[in-house]
Amino acid sequence: MAEQRSIPKDKGTDHTLKLLQEGYTFILNRSHRFHTNIFETKLLGEEVYCLVGKDAAEIFYDNDKFRRKDAAPPRAQKTLFGEGGVQGLDGGAHLNRKKMFMNLMTKDSLQEVRSLTGKAWKLAALEWNLDEPVSVYDEARKVMTRVASAWTGVPIADEHIEEWAGVLGDMYESPTAIGPKHWKGRRARSKAEARLEDLIEKVREEKIDTSKDRALYHFSWHRDESGELLDKHTVAVELLNLLRPMVAISVYIDFLVLAIHEHPEKVDKLRTSDEDQLQYFIQEVRRYYPFFPFAAARVDQDFTWNGYEFKEGTLTLLDLYGTNHHPELWENPKLFQPERFQTWDGHPFDFIPHGGGEFEMGHRCAGEWLTIEVLKETLDHFVNRMSFEFPEQNRGFSLKKIPSVPKSKIQLTGIGK
């Protein structure tokens, strides 16, 4: 029987402000300070367990011990996730809804999204004013909006691509924001949900022709575990759970181009478009640079793990960024080393930029494979199908801002094909 141990506590009345001030490093900072992979803190007046590391990730994704219902804070539901989406479901409801997403992630479908990505970058280049610097982040948002529209079947006319890119971007840029930016994210979600609900109604009334191979059709006609059609609001939320994360890949793309510039000695291996080398590079981008900071769940029932007692209902945060930088898991975690993935064993709980565990039954993000294909195609495009100059600019990025992107949003000049 394991010895009972006390969970270290972060002293103070509430640490919400410190979380906002420290951002991605909030949990890892205290893990180092307390010399532990688990501690207790208080956020928004609530006791919270904070976890980091492979073993902690494995227990966090045990569906018998943690639930997702009522875990996401209202601010995130109103901007990032939406209400009633797959992220907040458990049990049979979650399995049913997750299958709806995973059915899209076939080999042919992922190959299509990669092809769409290459075509979208070529089209974008035709529209660039080469007399002015090109903002990688801003262009990536438009590229990914175009790709997401074509792949999901949600029609977005060319003249509305930039508008939709802004709306979808506002959703994932606003959850931790305070003031006008947060409310901008709320308005963006309300606008997008209303538009999609109208579209779903037209699909069901057969007033518009939509391909049966697309998510728009599948989601509109999907039935829950009781055999009932999802209400149109829920369908809209789930369609946005495809559109929004696809546009959020723009964050990775901005860091990807930064990595190309900052690590030219690593780029030479990419000149042959070798699939393995492309994969190693983009996996290290996903490990090294910040994306989503942590995942949330609640303890579903009292249990003991490694001598620590977990109390039912307690909010628990798993540090995704910290696990990807944990010195117990990654040698020289502060160095950018794509070659580390040549020998990585594919463990489902030590490399978790999109969450841990398996896809079909668990809460690992269904779009991870899609993200990898988009990034490989984008990397190949920037390295082997275009040339550019990297002018003097502020390449720094803040680990306090969530999500973080380079301060210059990476500007390129002298672009050629």
Helices and strands, with pairings:
Layout lengths: L15 H7 L3 H9 L3 E6 L2 E6 L2 H7 L5 E2 L6 H8 L9 H12 L4 H21 L6 E2 H17 L8 H13 L6 H25 L10 H6 L11 H31 L1 H4 L7 H14 L5 E6 L3 E3 L2 E3 L4 E5 H5 L43 H17 L2 E3 L21 E6 L1
Parallel strand pairs: 2-8
Antiparallel strand pairs: 1-2, 3-5, 4-10, 5-8, 6-7, 9-10
Commentary on this structure:
The protein has 417 residues and is α+β, with helices and mostly antiparallel strands. The protein has one domain: Cytochrome p450. The mean pLDDT is 95. The chain is globular. It is built from 15 helices and ten strands. Helix 4 (74-81) packs across helix 9, helix 9 (180-204) crosses helix 11 and helix 13 packs across helix 15 (368-384). The termini are far apart. The strands form three sheets. The protein has a five-stranded mixed sheet with strand order 1-2-8-5-3. Strands 4-10-9 form a three-stranded antiparallel sheet. A hairpin with a 2-residue loop joins strand 1 and strand 2 (46-51).
